[in-house]
């Protein structure tokens, strides 16, 4: 007869969705942040893209809302091992925001209100892979989930989808962000379990 330790209830049930390795499915939306939640009003909010030569492209909230919006439905995968399937968002594609930006940069350093940063290859923000999201599940994005607007890059671990986004700095060379500087993986592919440096 097999021995099972007290408190062991087996694996968490899943709905049959395809989980990346090491993940489990959740049906709520856990709130995780590197610091306190900034409270940014629409009047205060702005988003900038700064190229490698210092050229700045800027949008305030009204200008962001005037841009064509998309409504992606995507799966989320957190490095803390939860995955949430079929999440519904509304936001502006980075393809739209970067359409008139002239750059030869290959990397991006994303900046948030509150001081958080994260790095990505620029190509991972293009071709319909990333959005500045301002609604979740049909509602205005709540501050604890990154409102008024957050970056959404669902093909990478969720720490790359910076909450409270305020700008993107385009760089010729990769520069680690907040979590990457303390040992998290520079890229963060859930399907390759790139959680930490060396994975």
SSE diagram, text form:
Layout: E1 24-25, E2 46-50, E3 56-60, H1 61-65, E4 73-77, E5 82-93, H2 94-97, E6 107-112, E7 117-121, E8 131-136, E9 139-140, E10 150-152, E11 165-171
Parallel strand pairs: 1-5, 2-11
Antiparallel strand pairs: 2-3, 4-5, 5-8, 6-7, 6-11, 8-9, 8-10
Question: Keywords, please?
Answer:
mainly beta; globular
Compact description:
The chain is mainly beta and 199 residues long. It contains two helices and eleven strands, in the order βββαββαββββββ. A hairpin with a 2-residue loop joins strand 8 (131-136) and strand 9 (139-140).
**Sheet of most strands:** 6 strands, mixed
Strand residue percentage? 25-35%
Low-confidence stretches: 1-15
Q: Number of helical segments?
A: 2
Radius of gyration: 18 Å
Whole-number mean pLDDT = 91
Helix content: under 10%
H/E series, N to C?
EEEHEEHEEEEEE
* Shape verdict: globular
What can you tell me about this protein's structure?
With 199 residues, this protein is mostly beta strands. The protein is built from two helices and eleven strands, in the order βββαββαββββββ. It has helices spanning 61-65, 94-97; strands spanning 24-25, 46-50, 56-60, 73-77, 82-93, 107-112, 117-121, 131-136, 139-140, 150-152, 165-171. The strands form two sheets. Strands 1, 4, 5, 8, 9 and 10 form a six-stranded mixed β-sheet that branches. The longest helix has 5 residues, at 61-65.
């Amino acid at each position: 007869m097999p021995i099972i330790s007290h408190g062991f209830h087996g694996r968490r049930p899943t709905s049959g969705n395809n989980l990346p390795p090491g993940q489990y499915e959740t049906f709520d939306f856990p709130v995780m942040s590197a610091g306190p939640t900034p409270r940014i009003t629409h009047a205060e909010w702005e988003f900038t893209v700064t190229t490698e030569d210092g050229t700045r492209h800027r949008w305030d909230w009204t200008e962001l809302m005037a841009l064509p919006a998309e409504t992606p439905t995507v799966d989320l995968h957190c490095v803390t091992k939860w995955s949430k399937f079929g999440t519904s968002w509304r936001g502006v594609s980075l393809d739209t925001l970067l359409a008139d930006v002239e750059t030869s940069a290959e990397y991006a350093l994303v900046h948030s209100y509150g001081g958080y940063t994260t790095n990505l290859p620029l190509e991972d923000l293009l071709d319909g892979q990333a959005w500045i999201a301002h609604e979740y599940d049909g509602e205005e994005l709540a501050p604890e989930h990154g409102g008024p607007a957050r970056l959404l890059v669902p093909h990478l671990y969720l720490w790359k989808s910076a909450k409270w986004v305020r700008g993107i700095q385009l760089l010729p060379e990769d520069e680690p962000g907040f979590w990457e500087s303390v040992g998290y993986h520079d890229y963060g592919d859930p399907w390759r379990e790139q959680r930490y440096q060396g994975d």
